[in-house]
UniProtKB/TrEMBL annotation:
Protein name: rRNA methylase
Keyword Methyltransferase on entry: yes
Top-rank taxon: Bacteria
Pfam families, per the entry: MRM3-like_sub_bind (PF22435), SpoU_methylase (PF00588)
Assigned keywords, A-Z: Methyltransferase, Transferase
Length: 255
């Protein structure tokens, strides 16, 4: 097993750059931190490039999973762990994985969420986690949305990224594919033509569009939907948080 104790190490310098999207895209890699996420990755049989950790944290992972003592396991110092961490206090254990986006796919079945230009990492991660919990098949993320390999999004997903399909794809193209297979597409938005969520019956398949936190679903996207829906506000709040609203709608259609 290799041991690294200098932040000037070539590999450590490379991995430290993965906090930024341009380097994740350039290297085709991303990093997750913490025992829970690594646990979910291993249980889901994710192929990884490296597991790096302090002596104590790395020993826990090796012991639990009986991992082979090979070049993919690297012991690092506390100083390096803090250097690599995307949080104020490091958890001391990291996994490096390849970014994988399928080149061929179609949306001819199942229940999906479409995230159209969402900007907040916490919202995106929470919606994906909720879709997973509700038994949805996957989430489509527009290229203009926050990067799903962002460390904040990865933490918010809490392992759900390894359970359901996550596909970065043009929203209009995805909608057209759903319509080609007669999968109903619903856009969540405040609109005079929109119907109350409770007026919608359960369907076997659907695609649910969630729009940008500040601007909602773009009009040219909404026009492609089969129906528009909204959640009535009973109290005095002006609106609901995007992730909360998405959760209510996802579970409405999950039964």
């Amino acid at each position: 097993m290799e041991k690294i104790d200098s932040t000037n190490n070539k590999l450590i310098k490379t991995l430290a750059k993965l906090e930024k999207k341009k380097y994740r895209e350039s290297f085709g890699q991303y990093m997750i931190e913490g025992f829970h996420l690594i646990d979910e990755a291993i249980k889901s049989k994710q192929k990884y490039l490296y597991i790096l950790g302090t002596a104590d944290e790395l020993a826990k992972v090796i012991e639990k999973y009986d991992l082979p003592d090979d070049q993919r396991l690297i012991e690092i110092s506390e100083k390096i762990a803090q250097h690599l961490s995307a949080t104020k206090t490091t958890q001391g254990i990291f996994m490096v994985l390849k970014i994988f986006q399928p080149k061929n796919f179609n949306f001819n079945f199942g229940k999906w969420v479409i995230l159209a230009d969402l900007a907040d990492p916490g919202n995106v991660g929470t919606i994906i986690r909720t879709a997973d919990a509700a038994g949805f098949d996957g989430v489509i993320i527009s290229p203009q949305s926050v990067d799903i390999y962002n460390p904040k999004v990865q933490r918010a997903m809490q392992g759900s990224q390894f359970h359901i399909s996550l596909i970065i794809n043009d929203v209009k193209d995805a909608i057209q594919q759903f319509k080609n297979y007669s999968v109903p597409v619903y856009a969540s938005m405040l609109d005079p033509e929109a119907k109350k969520l409770n007026d919608f019956d359960l369907v076997a398949q659907l695609a649910l569009i969630i729009g940008n936190e500040a601007h909602g679903v773009a009009l040219d996207v909404a026009e492609l939907a089969d129906e528009k829906l909204y959640i009535p506000i009973i109290g005095q709040a002006e609106s609901l948080n995007a992730a909360v609203a998405a959760g209510i709608m996802i579970y409405h259609f999950s039964k």
